[in-house]
Design goal:
Order of helices and strands: HHHHHHHHHH
Structural class: mainly alpha
Shape: globular
Number of strands: 0
Helix content: over 70%
Number of helices: 10
Strand content: under 5%
């Protein structure tokens, strides 16, 4: 097994050995959101004509869980390696910055997809949801996971303490995911907040994913793909540049 594959294997084992916390926990949290909001609002809210509100929640919750866990995997791995000091073993290895990127983002993508699939399957026990366009579902899930895995690298390199990482997650990642249309359609918002929502790239990830599930969305799916694809390239390029320069790794 080559070096980057070994690092990828180690990163996968890191979350898999505590799967109850890293996989089952987020799935349970999403199910609680589904049961609470679905039971309270299902009879009162209708977003799309042929879709119940409980079903409407499922793709948003699956994608939100996918994004948050893809971010958490690479971010937590890097900050722990820096704080505990074992990042020096990676720096002394012959692995290049591209190898680091492939291993950390690869593990993030796998964890994000496992959590997202878990939410989707568990939600099927409560409300039937099909896949209108499976390839769009796969495309937005993969792009979203790569984007958030890359963003996790950026945050993990920037943060030097656990509280800095918590601040990044609480003040950047959480608000952007919750305000991305997980629980509502942007058509129900006033014009000002519709404009604000459409400045959030997370909105396009969830809206494009929802198009793959229901075949309807708030904006055109190709528009969403263009925004998500360009955002993914931008964040991945930033993460690669920071890794190449050794930002906050070699000091």
């Amino acid at each position: 097994m080559t070096g980057w594959k070994m690092l990828l294997y180690k990163e996968v084992l890191r979350f898999w050995r505590v799967a109850g916390q890293t996989i089952a926990g987020p799935v349970l949290t999403a199910m609680l959101y589904l049961l609470i909001f679905g039971n309270v609002l299902d009879e009162h809210v209708r977003v799309y004509d042929a879709v119940r509100y409980t079903a409407f929640l499922v793709p948003g919750l699956a994608m939100m869980s996918l994004l948050q866990n893809a971010f958490a995997n690479s971010a937590s791995s890097l900050i722990m390696a820096k704080v505990m000091g074992n990042v020096v073993f990676l720096l002394l290895s012959p692995l290049t910055y591209v190898h680091w990127f492939l291993a950390f983002v690869g593990a993030s993508v796998l964890r994000g997809l496992l959590v997202g699939a878990g939410v989707f399957l568990a939600a099927g026990l409560f409300v039937p949801v099909g896949l209108a366009h499976p390839l769009w579902v796969l495309a937005f899930a993969l792009l979203g996971a790569v984007l958030m895995g890359s963003l996790g690298i950026v945050a993990g390199l920037w943060a030097e303490k656990f509280d800095q990482m918590a601040a990044f997650q609480n003040f950047v990642v959480m608000p952007m995911t919750f305000l991305s249309g997980v629980f509502y359609s942007t058509h129900s918002l006033p014009p000002l907040w519709q404009t604000v929502s459409r400045c959030n790239p997370f909105f396009y990830m969830i809206d494009g994913f929802r198009y793959g599930v229901f075949g309807v969305s708030d904006v055109g799916v190709w528009h969403s793909l263009a925004v998500v694809g360009s955002s993914t390239l931008l964040v991945a390029a930033l993460a690669l540049q920071l890794l190449r320069s050794g930002y906050r790794l070699r000091s």
